[in-house]
Amino acid sequence: MDKSQRKSAPPVVPRHVAIIMDGNNRWAKKRLLPGVAGHKAGVDAVRAVIEVCAESGVEVLTLFAFSSENWQRPADEVSALMELFLSALRREVRRLNENGIRLRIIGDRSRFHPELQAAMADAEAMTAAQNRFVLQVAANYGGQWDITQAAQRLAREVQEGRLQPEDISAERLQRCLVTAEAPLPDLCIRTGGEHRISNFLLWQLAYAELYFSDLFWPDFKHDAMRKALSDFSMRQRRFGKTSEQIDAEARV
């Protein structure tokens, strides 16, 4: 059999993709529109990315929707974002459910309006039985907050005598993070041209591949997502090992 007849190896697909959706405001400013217009336009990019991930075999997609630092933005923008979040939840949850997608919302919900908290709980309950794909939305989330709340949970166990300090391990702490149900992210994408992770999944991204796109989030659609997945498939993930070790393991 010659090379042209050989089947090519299937592409390596990340189990878990995490995305920092950046550039909505700059997209709107470039078009002389209010900032919230960029966030509304970004909803189409969310749909596109979900479609590509689901069709490609990605198991979990985590989107950084609202960070714990975003409360510092102008009050009118925060209010508009909350309204958009509420309307998107109510509008999109039925579509997620019909497509076998389970929704999980991670972060500290206590600061959100009770109506929004109720909508989050209702959306999660409606999609709880779905298992084709998991969509995690990080809302009022921060990586430092996540590690802190995990440490507090372990401290309470020690205080109550159910855990010894020397029994605290990286694995045990990881099980206390809000993402404990999901595999660790394999790929983290940031749009908008910035090259930082901005307090997103600090613990979980320790060995993730990073991919940065100059596109503003509303412009990050199907082709851009497929390009990011293709780039990931060509990378060699070593987890501290050498390239020679990885190559030898692949030949076994």
What do these coordinates show?
This protein is of the alpha/beta class. It contains 8 helices and 6 strands, in the order E-H-H-E-H-E-H-E-H-H-E-E-H-H. It has helices at 24-30, 35-56, 75-98, 114-127, 143-159, 170-174, 222-233, 243-251, and strands at 16-20, 60-67, 101-106, 133-141, 187-190, 209-212. It has a 6-stranded parallel sheet, sandwiched between helices. Helix 4 links the parallel strand 3 and strand 4. Helix 1 (24-30) crosses helix 2, helix 2 runs parallel beside helix 3 (75-98) and helix 3 packs parallel to helix 4. The longest helix is centred in the middle third of the chain and has 24 residues, at 75-98. It is globular, with a radius of gyration of 20 Å. The protein starts with 15 loop residues before the first strand and ends with a helix.
Brief sketch in words of this structure:
By secondary structure, the protein is an alpha/beta fold. The protein has 8 helices and 6 strands.
Key phrases:
globular, 252 residues, 6 strands, 14% strand, 8 helices, single chain, disordered N terminus, alpha/beta
Topology:
Blueprint: E1 16-20, H1 24-30, H2 35-56, E2 60-67, H3 75-98, E3 101-106, H4 114-127, E4 133-141, H5 143-159, H6 170-174, E5 187-190, E6 209-212, H7 222-233, H8 243-251
